[in-house]
Amino acid sequence: MTSIQLEQTPAAARAGFRANVGFAEVAGADATVRVTVKSGDTGAILATKSYTVGANQLFQAGLADILGAEAAARNLYVQFTVEGGAGRVLAYATSVDNKSGDAIYIPAQREP
């Protein structure tokens, strides 16, 4: 299991930023990945969604796809777990500037 800590607040949105999460399959086999978003403050699960990725493919979705379009949260903890298939994934997030399109890559870290 790997994880990332992110911020998805109304202030960030007003400043023109959004957060995406994604993963790349690297073992040459299909995989189903469960993405779980938790509150970094309480540990409560805010949303969970599973995605299927093909062998050697890349997948990316906005946090709004998982949390809902109107969700505004701060201090988010996002976990990635391969729940099916023989694939292995490298998980990541991006913080995207909506005005310029520039993105910052944030690699997931393996949990101890």
Give a topology summary.
Blueprint: E1 2-8, H1 10-14, E2 17-25, E3 31-39, E4 45-53, E5 58-62, H2 63-67, E6 73-85, E7 89-97, E8 103-107, E9 109-110
Antiparallel strand pairs: 1-6, 1-9, 2-5, 2-7, 3-4, 3-6, 7-8
Low-confidence parts: none
CATH topology: Hypothetical Protein Tm1070, Chain: A
Q: CATH H-level name... which superfamily? A: TM1070-like
Approximate shape: globular
SSE run: EHEEEEHEEEE
Q: How far is the N terminus from the C terminus?
A: 9 Å
Side by side, the strands of the main sheet go 4-3-6-1-9
Strand elements, count: 9
Global Rg? 14 Å
Percent range for β-strand residues = over 45%
CATH architectural name: Sandwich
The biggest sheet, with number of strands, parallel, antiparallel or mixed sense and barrel status, is: 5 strands, antiparallel
Task: Bin the helical content.
Answer: under 10%
Explain what the structure shows.
- The protein is mainly beta and about 110 residues long.
- It has helices at about 10-15, 65; strands at about 1-10, 15-25, 30-40, 45-55, 60, 75-85, 90-95, 105, 110.
- The strands form two sheets. A five-stranded antiparallel sheet has the order 4-3-6-1-9. Strands 5-2-7-8 form a four-stranded antiparallel sheet.
- The chain is globular.
- About 20% of the residues are buried.
- The mean pLDDT is about 90.
